[in-house]
Every structure is written in C-alpha cells, then in structure tokens.
Amino acid sequence: MTSFNDFGLVEPITRALVDEKYVTPTPIQDQTIPIAMQGRDVIGIAQTGTGKTAAFALPILNHLYTKRLRPEKKSCRVLVLSPTRELSGQISDSFRAYGRHMRPLAVALAIGGVPINRQVRSLAHGVEVLVATPGRLLDLVNQRALTLNQVEILVLDEADRMLDMGFIHDIKRIVAMLRKERQTLFFSATMPQEITRLADAMLRDPARVAVTPQASTVDRVEQRVILTDKSAKPNLLVEVLKTETTDRVLVFTRTKHGADKVVRALQKSGFGAEAIHGNKSQNQRERVLADFRDGRLRILIATDIAARGIDVDGVSHVVNYDLPNIPESYVHRIGRTARAGAEGIAISFCDHEEAPFLRDIERLIRMSIPSTDKRTGERPAHRPNQPNEGRGKGRPNYRGGGRNQRGNNGGGGNGHHAGGGHRSHNGGSHQGRPSQNSQQAAAPRQEATTGEPRDIGNVTFLQGSGEPRRNAGHRTR
Ligand code: AMP
Fold first, then answer.
1. Which of 74, 129, 312, 326 has its CA 20 to 30 A from that of 299?
2. In the chain, how many domains are there?
3. Global pTM?
4. pLDDT under 50 in the chain at which residues?
C-alpha cells in the first residue's frame, strides 16, 4: 500500500488528506484502515505519534459518509473514549480536519474541567462523533443529556493509560450501555493482561495490528541515568540544562506538587520553565503548551498523565526528574523525544529510593542504561540489580497505585465525577507514588509472570528473551 487512494476512501476524505499534505499512510494506517473499512473489530497496538488517530478516524468518517443517517437527539453515532482532555481535544480536532469537506458532520467534545452546560447543548440534536473522557461522559449520561444505545462504532484509545488512570470500571459501565451490534476499535500502546482481558470482553473476532515505532523509538533515543541523592536533584537539573545543548526540554516529575517545585527551582536559577498538570486550568494548559510548541517556552515540566498524548515535535531532551514507578511510562516518556524520526536524549535522575524502578525499566526495555554516579554517599551505594535477575523482587504494586491515580491529576479530564464508589481521591501530592516501604516489599507486589517477557507490544519483543541485553547509550543509526 503506497497511497491513501488505494483504500477507496470517499472523495471528501481524500481531498482533506491532500489539504493535510498526507501522502503516504503510516504503518498503523496501512494496516488498520482496510480492516476497519470492512467493519471488523480491531486491536491496534500503537503509541500516540504513529498516526493512529487517522487510522481510526478515516474509516469512521468513510462509514459516516457512506451510511448517512440523521443522529437521534441526545445521541452519537460514534463514540471515542480517550483518557485525557488534551488527547480528546486533539482527536476531535483531527475528526474535524479529516472531515472538513463532509456535511453534515457534528463532532462534539465532552471533557472535564470545563462547564458541562455547553456540552449538554452540543448533544441536544445528536452528533455524528463524540470524543469524551470517561468521567464526563458518565456525567452526561447521568444527567440524561446523552444516551449511548445508538453508538455504531466505539473507539477506545490508549486503553492501557485508561487502566493506569483508574478508568476501567467507568469503561465497563459505558460498554454495558452500548448495543452489541457495533464495531469496536481498540488501541493501546501496551497490552498488559488486564487490557487483554478487557479487549476480549469488548471485541468480536478482532483483527490484531501492531506497529514497531516504539521499539525504534527506544533504539533511537540516547538514554543515560545519573545516580544522585534526592536532595541534589534541583541542582543537578540546573547543571544538566547548563551543560547540555538543548532545544526543547520536557522534564517529568511524578507529582503535580513536584512539578511546581521544579518550576520554582529553575526560575530561581534564571531558567524560564512552566508546568502542565491537572491543577492548572484548561486555558493555562493550552497556553503553556502553545508556548512550548512555538518555542517561546524551552522547558516544560509535566506529570505523566498531563503529558500523555501531547504531540510536540522537536523535543531534544526528556529529563526524568523522578523515575516513573510504572516502567511502561518510561517508554512513553522517552518517546516524547525522537519523534518524527528525530533523535533525542533521555536523562533520568535516579535516587536511592528509585533504584527498584530503574531495575524494572531496564528489565522492560531489555537494555542496560549507562549510568553516572553522582551520589555523595549519604545512603548506602545501591546500583540496581541486573535487569534479568530477581524478577519481580521489590516491585511496587504499581497497578494498584495507578488505579488510585484517578482524580489526582486532572489530565484525566474529569473535574467532577458522578457517583462511582470505586474512585479514590488520595490527595494531590502522592500521585502514583508507592508507599515509603514499598521497596522493602511491605506493599503488596504484582506477581511477575516468571520467565516471560512482559507484553508491552513491540519494545519487549524487539529482542528475544535469550538474547543479551543491549546498551541503551549507543544510538542505533
Ligand atoms: P497521532 O499518532 O494520530 O497522534 O499522529 C501523530 C502526528 O502525525 C499528527 O501530527 C498527525 O497529523 C501526523 N500524521 C498522521 N498521519 C500522517 C500521514 N499519513 N502523513 C503525515 N503525517 C501524518
């Protein structure tokens, strides 16, 4: 497949693709579009940045154009569920862009953090496409502003992140309201067991498509670790920013509170930096993101959830100020650099408490990341074990922790939740952080599946489990 014309998409769509200057389908588009156009369910293993939005949006628009029906009042024909406000906004923008020559085409957005009334009004006459975060969608259903029994196509985007953010129960509730005769397009960057189970329950005879850019991303990024004391991290960041030749720097912290602290520390040292996280208003977040995109802001501090789905090219450096306790997040984070074929640098600070996280990450990516030791010896020296040793030891119960993240970071886009006793609001400053004791295995651990690589799509399987680990410090050209 070399051209969008080969798919047999209707003319208004191909014309929009010309406007967008899309010439060649990306691999996920190449694989997904023909299958989705046949009406089959799809499981797509692909990250943001691979062109997956068009992979589902184009066949959906084609369906809407060829099967024209007037949407019923307070209903939608296509429902797209996405975990964050930003990603939802980007998806609805994409539908509008690819459908710009289609009339009528009503695309509505239902996200938290903004007043609900406008969203209620936008659904009053029914819409073709509704892009929503799960919490706000349920709010709308509970308010009787929306019924879901007319949904012909469901898209679940970033399913793994939905799980991490605690949306799984909401998803199940939503799916239960849909009719069974529908098409489901299911996308996830990784396929942990719980996601596989969810997909099995939601999909009918799905075609499975997967793309490899995650692996090449991991390969393309030059990765380094600096072992440091926790208290030295602010100065270390300043040092890195002074010594590295940076263009756009994305700094990840585990918590919103941590993000604000880093901003203050950098500003004190004369660096212009801003944070993006769930405590910021939608307007603030959009302004900061636009500044970062346009180059007015060089250093952006973000939490995982806030950064998810943000599509910014030209990030030269990702700095993991805190290491993520969910190893897959590391892959997502470093994927923010090395976009669109560019090469990038990922520098991770690892303090004593984070050593087990580093071990988990290295095990996941099957690479040993070159490290520099800048610890002063405040704590007993502790370089993590070899990634292939002691599998599962000291592993924090990160899935459990992840579930409780819901509501901690408004990146989830649900400023207000309706009902749902399962939701946990455990305060803003401990997002996703394991208990102090977790490294002493006091917290319950996730059971490791012995001997098997964890299924994270293509990264893990890039190398057979028996092959030697690579060294992440060398770029693969
Ligand atoms: P996504 O993974 O959907 O977030 O897409 C990542 C970026 O790739 C977006 O900026 C899209 O506009 C762009 N894109 C998607 N498909 C293509 C294509 N076939 N050709 C060029 N750019 C594309």
1. 326
2. 2
3. 0.56
4. 213-215, 380-470, 474-477
